[in-house]
């Protein structure tokens, strides 16, 4: 799915633009953006890819933290909205048990781990479910995104370099 989105976007924008947009999307976030940027399709140097991915991944987080509660309340008045937010919050709750114990530090670690469904978007949903205030949640999410950026830089660009040497 991420690959299809990257290919579609690359028809309309530069590799920098694709990297930035992929970082903003919940399905790819920073992880997918860094993999794309390091791939032959993106072919961006790390010095360009990392800042684009970090900023792109963080841009939607404050609006998400600010609007999740009023949006969920309003949408839950409708059956489709109720089902959607129940699904989102169930996923967040299932991931939040580990985070709840350590709160902001746990949130940072959760966002930092480069695995599926552990990024900034899910981190924001978990912060909402746990009742963390934006002023505490946002710095934790930022720290987690930066750590994930370092990890993904090593993984994506290390793998790309290794493949170039082998092939």
Automatic annotation (TrEMBL):
UniProt signal peptide: none
InterPro entries: Sm_multidrug_ex
Keyword rRNA-binding: no
Organism superkingdom: Bacteria
Stretches that traverse the bilayer: 49-68, 105-129, 141-166
Pfam families: Sm_multidrug_ex
Keywords from the UniProt entry: Membrane, Transmembrane, Transmembrane helix
Record-linked PANTHER family: TRANSPORT PROTEIN-RELATED (PTHR36007:SF2)
Protein name: Ligand-binding protein SH3
Organism of provenance: Candidatus Abyssobacteria bacterium SURF_17
């Amino acid at each position: 799915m991420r690959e299809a989105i990257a290919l579609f976007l690359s028809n309309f924008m530069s590799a920098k633009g694709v990297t930035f947009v992929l970082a903003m999307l919940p399905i790819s976030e920073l992880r997918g953006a860094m993999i794309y940027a390091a791939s032959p399709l993106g072919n961006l140097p790390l010095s360009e890819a990392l800042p684009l991915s970090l900023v792109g991944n963080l841009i939607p987080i404050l609006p998400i933290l600010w609007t999740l509660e009023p949006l969920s309340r309003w949408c839950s008045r409708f059956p489709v909205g109720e089902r959607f937010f129940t699904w989102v919050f169930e996923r967040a709750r299932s991931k939040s048990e580990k985070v709840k114990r350590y709160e902001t530090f746990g949130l940072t670690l959760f966002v930092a781990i480069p695995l599926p469904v552990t990024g900034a978007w899910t981190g924001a949903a978990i912060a909402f479910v746990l009742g963390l205030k934006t002023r505490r949640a946002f710095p934790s999410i930022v720290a987690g995104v930066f750590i994930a950026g370092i990890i993904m830089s090593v993984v994506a660009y290390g793998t790309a370099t290794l493949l170039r040497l082998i092939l």
